[in-house]
Amino acid sequence: MSQTIVTRFAPSPTGFLHIGGARTALFNWLYARGRGGKFLLRIEDTDRARSTEAATQAILDGMAWLGLDHDGEVISQYARGDRHREVALELLEKGQAYKCFATQDDIESFREAARAEGRSTLYQSPWRDADPASHPDAPYVVRIKAPRDGATVIHDQVQGDVTIRNDQLDDMVLLRSDDTPVYMLAVAVDDHDMGVTHVIRGDDHLNNAARQMLIYTAMGWPLPVYAHIPLIHGPDGKKLSKRHGALGVDEYQKMGYPAAGMRNYLARLGWSHGDDEFFTDAQAQDWFDLNGVGKSPARFDFKKLDNLCGQHIAASDDAALLHELQGFLAATDQPKLQPEKSALMEKAMYCLKERAKTFPELLDKAQFILADRPIIPDEKAAGQLDSVSRSILTQLTPHLQTVTWSRDELEAVAMQFAESVDMKFGKLAGPLRAALAGRSATPSVFDMMLVLGRDETIARLSDAASESG
């Protein structure tokens, strides 16, 4: 029977969900979902001073917005402290760890002497092989017995084989003198207990793998598969930071990017499948593999993000898009669309979603729906409504009273009318836009008429025609 794939995402709740963390979560999600496996979520909240409920919630909200569902309960690392201690004590019992009574002063003296003699400053505790009978009644830490010679090889699915000489690894502390477990121990124990088969994380954790492998080996546990993915850089090739723009996933939601476009873009950030740029979730799950992840840092590119998001908006199901639009309005503290407007928006989606890259752009195109009579034209549109134009609108209105309300019929009537007053239709379109939407950049005049319906269209044209000069 083949092994069930289990991946995990393990953020620290000290702030928002960073865009780099979101991509790590996405890679883990894609890898597990594409193989019928499990994707778990662990909150690494052992840093009690910096971990907050609000940050945990921000991570959960960010993942929910991105559509990255996890299996089972959210696991708190802090809540598992007793289990981490139990493993440290088991290693002590097995002779794979030892009590070290060295004080900070002892360690500093060792390092000073090593520096003076040109030796490695990696601390070597005199307590490693001390007889327990010689142990003083004093505070101690528990250290693992790291191998002193040979090498540790991390077989990494992205970076290839990474070799670390064992004389570069110190006897890492497992339990501090106050009995609290260290992060390295907690991560290894949690990954093992959660049955994680694949550890996919940022390459800033590559050195941690060698240290966590010490615990696996000492406990006789099978190692997970490691895949350390390069970090994301800004367009200038430097590590992504505040000066490059938005860092938190929540900010991208508030900028109005659709979640499907965001997933597609983040998947392409450092991973590729041939020349494919635009793809669905099903394709991403089907295609995603670790051998498609590059070794070099990926560069964040807003133009590419805009382009992909535009394609996803255009390809979206209208009802689903409307639902996500309501989510965007809620996230940005804007009033929810009322049922009547909402129904018109869904009816209009076919002409709104083409060439809109974000929800603000989509809403901008939908101004003719969102505005209520009387329509107040902006400065540019008002220029289209002079006395001649208003007179023409007055003449056009009766023709619309009786026409069959379909695009072909509306176009035919408008063209015939323009011809009868010796005008090119382009000249008529400006006043119509101004009357229907109050602006000069809008969807097609006929799309607006079809969405608004006969009564509202005629009412708006009558309002504009009767405006006093």
From TrEMBL:
Q: Where is this motif: 'KMSKS' region?
A: 239-243
The organism sits in which domain of life? Bacteria
Q: List the catalysed reactions.
A: tRNA(Glu) + L-glutamate + ATP = L-glutamyl-tRNA(Glu) + AMP + diphosphate
GO CC terms: cytosol
Residues that coordinate or bind ATP: K242
Where does it mainly reside? cytoplasm
Key words of the record: Aminoacyl-tRNA synthetase, ATP-binding, Cytoplasm, Ligase, Nucleotide-binding, Protein biosynthesis
Give the EC number. Answer: 6.1.1.17
Q: Where in the cell is it found?
A: Cytoplasm
Boundaries of every Aminoacyl-tRNA synthetase class I anticodon-binding domain copy: 336-464
Q: Which GO terms describe its molecular function?
A: ATP binding; glutamate-tRNA ligase activity; tRNA binding; zinc ion binding
Q: Which residues form the Glutamyl/glutaminyl-tRNA synthetase class Ib catalytic domain?
A: 5-306
Q: Where is this motif: 'HIGH' region?
A: 11-21
Please name the Pfam families in this protein's record: Anticodon_2, tRNA-synt_1c
Alphabetically, which GO biological process terms does the record hold? glutamyl-tRNA aminoacylation
Cited function: Catalyzes the attachment of glutamate to tRNA(Glu) in a two-step reaction: glutamate is first activated by ATP to form Glu-AMP and then transferred to the acceptor end of tRNA(Glu).
What family is it from? Belongs to the class-I aminoacyl-tRNA synthetase family. Glutamate--tRNA ligase type 1 subfamily.
Subunit note: Monomer.
What is the protein's name according to its record? Glutamate--tRNA ligase
Species of origin: Roseovarius gahaiensis
